[in-house]
Amino acid sequence: AKRADYGADVIPLQEWVVGETVRTALLVLMGAVGFVLLIACVNVANLLIARAAEREHEIAVRRALGAGRGDLMRQLLAESFLLAALGSAAGILLARWGIGFLAATIPDDLVRLEGVGLDGTVLLFVTTVATLSALAFGILPTLVASRAQLIDSLSEVGRSFAGGRATKRTRSVLVVAEVTLSLVLLVGAGLMIRSLAAVIQRDPGVRVDNMLMLSLRLPGERYSEKELVDRFFLDVTEQIGELQGVESATSLLSLPLGASTYNLFRAHLEEGEPEPPAGPEFSAQWNAVMPGYFQTMGIPLLQGRAFTDRDHLESEPVMMISQSFAEEMFPGRDPVGIRVRSWRDENLLRTIVGVVGNVRQYGMSSDYNRFVYVPRLQQVGLTPQAIVVHTTADPLSMVSAVRGVIWNEDPNLPISNIQTIEQAASDSLGQEKMIAQMMGFFAAVALLLAAVGLYGLISYSVTQRTREIGLRMALGANTSSVLSAIIRQALTLALIGMGIGLLISFAASRVIINLLYDISPVDPLTYVVVSLVLVGVAVVASLVPAFRATRVDPVSALRYE
Q1: Residue among 42, 166, 46, 147 at smallest CA distance from 460
Q2: How far apart are CA 256 and CA 270, in angstroms?
Q3: Helix (H) or strand (E) segment spanning residue 404
Q4: Which helix (H) or strand (E) holds 389?
Q5: Confidence band for 295, pLDDT divided at 50, 70 and 90
Q6: How far, in Å, CA of 362 to CA of 429, rounded?
Q7: How far apart are CA 542 and CA 546, in angstroms?
Q8: 3-state SS of 446-506?
Q9: Tens-digit pLDDT profile for residues 303-340
Q10: 65 exposed, middle or buried (CB, 10 Å; 0-12, 13-18, 19+)?
Q11: Cα dihedral 199/203/207/212 (nearest 10)
């Protein structure tokens, strides 16, 4: 029979497996790779422009001997393509190692790497990117070199002052572009790292320290009766609780913090409310727990009472709810004493006897989940799937003893998923850690490339200005004024790039808003720290050429050719 006002959503399998968050994360990482590629290409273009400026006399001689502009451009472009080919070959070799490294470090729930490899499609993509990069960033130095004035380049003036104002402006613009792209990447990495730090500090809702958990399933053919299942878990948890080094133990249906493989949702109606669509329903996670569960897990009791051994099949059906569920279903009301039923499934009125704290069921990055707890002793059909042990020492040191208790009761039971809750909390952030680490790595590479580019420009500028610096020092300029002038040049370029980068970052940060937790995409601290880091890098990158400039001998510089 059809139900009015109910429908279904059809979702492609790929979308269901990958998910929107994973897709966004991969796109952001792909963008970071693209930024690093652009910065590297800009660096190479800058070096080629400097080299072309130094070769102005050679190029002028070739033109004087009859070489056409097209011939010169083909020669210089061939050099760019050769660099791209060598770089691509080295990159492919590194990629073969990198794929194995990623497969070992990326969480299994983020992407599927089983079929990832260097196939023909990947090699075609690499070849295409290398070709386009060589063409796009090799054409600029080629144009600069081929436009050199023949007479000036052949003269001593041209040789002494290789690279005119247009060349210097071009190189400065490229360095500004490097700083801009680096700042955008640094802001993205900074936001990811700040977000990770914030989510680690979240309250998981359960006790994390000294907590051991494991999964096990009782075979139905040997545990077909509810009394056998209840007696097994009561006996086992009681014996584990008596072990030296154990504070308490309990069993439950669904483990928190993403450690469970079994999660059950049910819709609930308050007593007297009509069934939907006439009345409202409220969905919540359903968990069947044994007595002592909340004390063992460290989940605080906020109102009412917790379950006891007296909550069994012959007693009044009861339930407990989480604070988030109470706020949604009973806003401004005291839920204790109200009767509620899971109308599509159990369809049994249960009295709410207590309200407990919220729990992050699916991991530290998830929101607090709405929960309904029922006593396992009153529950038919849902068998506990896990045991949780609160220890007084290292929980992993108790694994052998806990196993011994379980296998002493039934030696044929398989035990799996043995881990600490602390480890489960950490594992639940595997995706966030990986993204932060990858973004941090790409940002560090970008920062290094930007520093190299800035150093190269300042160093080249000092070389070209040797006569000018010597003249200034001969006329009385002191060391500090020369030093400050060189550093000021680097800071000017860095500040221009940072200004543009901040504007782009403000706009681009919205792209990663779904990957951030408990932090704004325009977090002031991140932007300030990133800006200070870039200023510091600019100063450091300019110090070596600046100090070299202060050691220029005025007499030698004035004879410089």
Answers
A1: 46
A2: 26
A3: helix 399-409
A4: strand 386-391
A5: very high
A6: 10
A7: 6
A8: HHHHHHHHHHHHHHHHHHHCHHHHHHHHHCCCCHHHHHHHHHHHHHHHHHHHHHHHHHHHH
A9: 999 998 888 888 999 999 999 999 999 998 999 999 99
A10: exposed
A11: -20
Distance from C-alpha of 100 to C-alpha of 133, rounded to nearest angstrom: 27
Q: Which of 88-102, 178-192, 519-533 has the lowest mean pLDDT?
A: 88-102
> Tens digit of pLDDT for each residue in 123-140?
787 788 778 777 777 776
The pLDDT of residue 107 = 60
Distances (CA, A) of 410 to 223, 238, 244, 300, 498: 11, 15, 21, 33, 66
For residue 554, what are the contacts with CB-CB under 8 A and spacing of at least 6? 470, 471, 473, 474
| Residue 356 structure tokens | 């407990």
Q: What is the pLDDT of residues 41-53, one digit of tens each?
A: 777 777 777 776 6
Residues 6+ apart with CB under 8 A from 501: 179, 180, 181, 182, 183, 184, 187
CA 469 to chain centroid, in Å, comes to: 47
At 442, list the tokens.
């790409």
Question: Would you call 318 helix, strand, or coil by DSSP?
Answer: strand
C-alpha dihedral sign at 515, 520, 526, 530: positive
Torsion of CA 390, 392, 398, 401, to 10 degrees: -90
**Helices H / strands E in the chain, number of each:** 17, 11
Place of tokens 């100090």: 547
